[in-house]
Input
Amino acid sequence: MLTCDNPPPITVVLDPGDDLVHTRAALAAHAPADGRLTVHPTPGTDSALTLAYDVLAALGKPVPLTGYRQLDTAPAWTLAAAWILATHTTHLTLLRAHFLTPHRLNALLQLRRCTGLRLTLVCHTPHLPRSLERPLAGLPYRMAEATALLPDAEPPTATPPVGGLRRPLAGRWLNLPALTTLTAFDSATDPCPCTPPMAADRDYFPPVMPAITETEVAHRLHSATAHPHLAAHLATAIFTATSTTQLDTAHLHDLAPDASTLTLHDDGLRQGCMTHHVPTWAQPLLLAAAYTWRIATGTSGPLFTDPLGSTGLPHLTRFAESCKLRPPQPPRPKRRKGSRRPAKQQETIWPFSPAHYALPWTMREPGLMHGCPHPPPHTRRTIAAYKKGWPPPDYGQRPIRPLGR
Output
């Protein structure tokens, strides 16, 4: 299990007046992108599981967790620690700390030992509560006044600030050509002990996503689930354009320590074993999946499986559909002129594409595309364009149009 040998001292902030300006200042310091979390515990409960959910919610993850026993606290705290380490979160400020029960405080202290967090406990009392004094007796901590560490913050405004973050692709289906080759005919094989070349050295280049699409995909995968292995699985399928057969060969040792590269194995059916560059937007997802294994078991295993033993989670294609991510679909049938019948919602089609296979027998199944367009062409011309730094355009992505038109 991962542990931090020398975590930073704990800071206990006293706010005897329970002043609104101090609470507002603590909430204003909440910036997950900068590694700072502010957790406002759910009132009216002393459950350690609820506190773990509060930490996960502060990280932007949906709660409550699914797939585990209802009252099991270990998976929630393990996933919270994995996400904290993967996203390089360094500070956690907890409000209403004077209401902490011993088992909730011990869970927080264990999270601190595992991740090395700078833990700040805000107590709205004139002195250190006895419930905190005994557990903190053998730990390094310092006392501070709220007026010194929580200065006044600007009151919240009714209108969002100008120039705030916008998501032009929010709520839209994204057709990603890389997912065309996700569904495979065969089953996974055992990984081989090889040192494969980079994908570019084998003239293998996945489809390119525009920066705006990358940002939207990363946002959806981070906010869609608290299960790192599920988000990392789909993210890897997107940036490698490989099949589930190849994805299932990835083990913890195939991922670089900084998640900059990932090796996928192949038994010769496709282009062979390759090492892929992991884009920046996907690195935290793969790191979180790796940290889950290291925290839960301390051993290596299949990267895209859950060492905590979750059950009932959606299949990869269903998870992609819940994120509104899919391969390019067949053209919609034209509606008859003057028809008042509403358009029927079409189900997502997942084709069986043989484009990335190397053996000729796999090319004898052209009908399994089900009308979906084939992946982007992979010819000498496109390979030469990639090597010159001119990636092909994003195939299958519709132009952005304002909503309501």
